[in-house]
Design goal:
The complex is a heterodimer. Chain A has a single domain, classed as Orthogonal Bundle (MetI-like fold), CATH 1.10.3720.10. Chain A contains 14 helices and no strands. By secondary structure, chain A is an all-alpha fold. The two termini of chain A are 24 Å apart. The two termini of chain B are 49 Å apart. In chain B, the strands form 4 sheets. Chain B has a 6-stranded mixed beta sheet, with helices on both faces. In chain B, strands 13-17-14-15-16 form a 5-stranded antiparallel beta sheet, with no helix packed on it. The longest helix of chain B has 19 residues. By secondary structure, chain B is an alpha+beta fold. Chain B has 2 domains: 238 residues, Rossmann fold (3-Layer(aba) Sandwich), CATH 3.40.50; 115 residues, OB fold (Dihydrolipoamide Acetyltransferase, E2P) (Beta Barrel). Helix content of chain B is 26%, strand content 30%. In chain B, strand 14 and strand 15 form a beta hairpin. Chain B contains 8 helices and 18 strands. Chain B is elongated and about 85 Å long. The chains are: A mainly alpha, B alpha+beta. At the A-B interface, helix 9 and helix 10 of A face strand 6 and helix 2 of B.
């Protein structure tokens, strides 16, 4: 039984990893090998020039920096808003709390694409399109973040927060000095979800910005698609590798915390 | 001192406290004693400001603090679960209440406070105070540890240290010893009482363990189903319990309660030496403590069921001739008859408690016992 399940897992992993492997392989192949009729898993020689081209043909470094600014901005605001909300929903008694939490849960059901058009029109009205603000503001309130943190805080003993109140901490101080540091696993899990989603998002940057200087990494990669000259596959794949690597590295570093955070948050991944 | 005045608390439609009025004098060690669910923890939480009464007032040193939050009242509390902050070291746990108070003072100076030259000195003062408290509680070597690396007794000390570090007007303790093993509990009991004497502050100590309450307190408040049943010194509670329920609750060995009907002259057929004038024909409950009921040559005639030998003493389980079970206490060297054998149990009339069989209230007539 054990070798069988191991084999199944290995096969599954291979299927998942194949596109990544292919991306890395293509990014290192010389141009003439990419369009050969044969399928060669490995390049005959390592064509590092694809990477040089990727960085010179388009401002890839700029795209990466935009990605950091946008994802960082979104994450910071999401945490700043979600953590106090979640604390209030989990550890404070007030009228309408259940209803409010119900609304948060309902909010989980609404896909972003439904609200995209009104948000776009609103930003246009405010003349905020083509700004970092347009890329960040629609995402600062995360119902998923509120939900994840709420589940985490609800599992914490109420006596801990009561002790803090007796010790003279205000509710705001309790949120940031007691609740948030204890919610690190949840925060890490949430950060991974948030950064992955927004780093990879092409839909909203495509709608909200047209200025290449504001392009996020996936938006920037699109610039390799050139209707006249055809796709420049080698550098495109090299850029894709560069864009994906930070996420993979980040996930590997945070892996244990993420599993822990999701397990404690009462969610099943 | 802290005073409750007609405090009523309802959870939804369920009343938990029925108009509690209570004053904890300055410098006293007051226990709130009662079975679980009697409202003693709710009372303590209302004192702390963690819960609000539906009716009634709370006064702290004369000032009305009914609507004040826990952080606005200068009270310290030790929780049953200790409630240490798991992400902070022992030193940081103890320092937090002090640091918070200092910060709020600095914040009143509109943020410039942190840059002021006094800040470093204050930090040094806090750390000196933390070390002082740690030394008092024997926590010197543990200051850099996280709570997860501490034993139950050590966590308990840290929780006490955190309460002790600032100078609160009152200490509130919610069953702080119930998670410790028996030996440690006895030791901490003595340490807490000594600590209270040293600080000279009022301690309010909630417990369901009558031994703890009796051993440590100046005053015991016995609570039963949301009402105060009796307030008094431990000795009052033991010697003159106000109700049958209090009598049943206080005492290391559960009291024997016998329902009897008094004779025409107020005499009791069971105990000929006892007479209650003016209560002829009344239904009363006799309360006989096992330690006052000893095997003797003459007395209540009973049959021995079994003996629990405890060393210094032996608990005697017997039945009266009408089948009523009775517990008595004999000295450890007492030679019991064979099980089923007859024995006599004697009680001094002044040791007998009398309660109204209907209301459970102590009968004042009980004082007028006459020797036959």
């Amino acid at each position: 039984m054990r070798p069988l399940s191991l084999l199944a897992l290995l096969l599954g992993a291979a299927v998942v990893l194949l596109p990544f492997f292919w991306m890395v392989s293509l990014s290192l192949k010389p141009a003439d090998e990419i369009f050969s009729a044969r399928v060669d898993l490995l390049p005959s020689r390592l064509a590092w020039e694809n990477y040089a081209t990727a960085f010179t043909e388009v401002p890839l470094a700029r795209f990466l920096m935009n990605g950091v600014i946008v994802c960082g901005g979104i994450l910071v605001f999401q945490v700043v808003f979600a953590v106090p909300c979640a604390y209030a929903l989990a550890q404070r008694r007030f009228p309408g709390r259940t209803l409010l939490f119900g609304l948060v849960l309902a909010g989980l059901l609404v896909p972003f694409h439904v609200t995209a058009i009104p948000i776009f029109l609103g930003l246009a009205e405010l003349r905020l399109l083509n700004t970092y603000t347009a890329l960040i503001v629609p995402f600062v309130a995360s119902v998923f973040g509120i939900f994840l943190f709420r589940q985490f805080f609800a599992a914490m003993p109420a006596e801990l927060f009561e002790a803090a109140r007796v010790d003279g901490l205000s509710e705001t101080a309790i949120v940031w000095r007691i609740a948030f540091p204890l919610a690190w696993p949840a925060a890490t899990a949430f950060a991974v979800f948030s950064v992955t989603a927004h780093w990879n998002d092409l839909f909203w940057p495509l709608i909200a910005t047209s200025d290449p200087a504001l392009a996020t990494p996936p938006r920037g990669i699109v610039y390799f698609r050139d209707a006249e000259a055809g796709d420049d596959v080698g550098p495109l794949m090299a850029a894709s590798v560069v864009v994906t690597t930070p996420l993979i590295a980040g996930f590997l570093l945070a892996q244990r915390r993420v599993t822990q955070g999701i397990a404690t948050g009462g969610l099943k991944a | 001192m802290i005073e409750l005045d007609g405090v009523t608390r309802r959870f939804g439609a369920t009343p938990v406290l029925h108009g509690i009025s209570l004053a904890v004098p300055e410098g006293s060690f007051t226990s709130i004693l009662g079975p679980s669910g009697c409202g003693k923890s709710t009372t303590l939480r209302i004192m702390a400001g963690l819960d609000r009464p539906n009716e009634g007032r709370v006064r702290l040193n004369g000032a009305d603090v009914t609507e004040a939050t826990a952080s606005e009242r200068n009270v310290a509390m030790v929780f049953q679960s200790y409630a240490l902050y798991p992400h902070l070291t022992v030193a940081e746990n103890i320092a937090l209440p002090l640091a918070m108070r200092q910060f709020s003072r600095l914040e009143r100076l509109a943020g410039v406070g942190r840059l002021m030259p006094g800040a470093g000195a204050k930090r040094a003062a806090i750390s000196a105070r933390v070390r002082e408290v740690a030394a008092m509680l024997g926590l010197d070597d543990l200051l850099e540890r996280k709570p997860a690396a501490l034993s139950g007794g050590q966590k308990q000390r840290v929780a006490v240290g955190r309460a002790l570090v600032r100078d609160p007007s009152i200490f509130l303790l919610d069953e702080p010893l119930s998670n410790l093993d028996a030996r440690l509990r006895v030791q901490m009991r003595a340490e807490l009482a000594a600590l209270q004497a040293r600080t000279g502050r009022a301690f309010v100590y909630v417990t369901h363990d009558q031994v703890e309450a009796m051993a440590m307190s100046d005053h015991v408040v016995v609570m039963m189903s949301g009402r105060i049943a009796q307030v008094g010194a431990p000795r009052d509670l033991y010697e003159r319990p106000a109700t049958r329920a209090v009598a049943a609750f206080i005492g290391a060995h559960p009291i024997n309660l016998l329902d009897v009907t008094l004779g025409a002259s107020g005499a009791c057929s069971l105990l000929p030496k006892l007479r209650v004038p003016g209560a002829a024909g009344a239904r009363v409950t006799l309360g006989l403590r096992p330690e006052h009921l000893v095997p003797a040559a003459a007395g209540l005639s009973a049959r021995l069921e079994r003996v629990e030998y405890l060393g210094a003493e032996a608990v005697v389980h017997a039945r009266l001739d009408d089948g009523t079970p009775l517990r008595a206490l004999a000295p450890g060297d007492w030679a019991p008859p064979a099980p089923g054998g007859a024995l006599s149990l004697a009680v001094a009339p002044e040791r007998v408690h009398l309660f109204d069989a209907e209301t459970g209230a102590r009968l004042p007539a009980a004082a007028e016992r006459v020797a036959a």
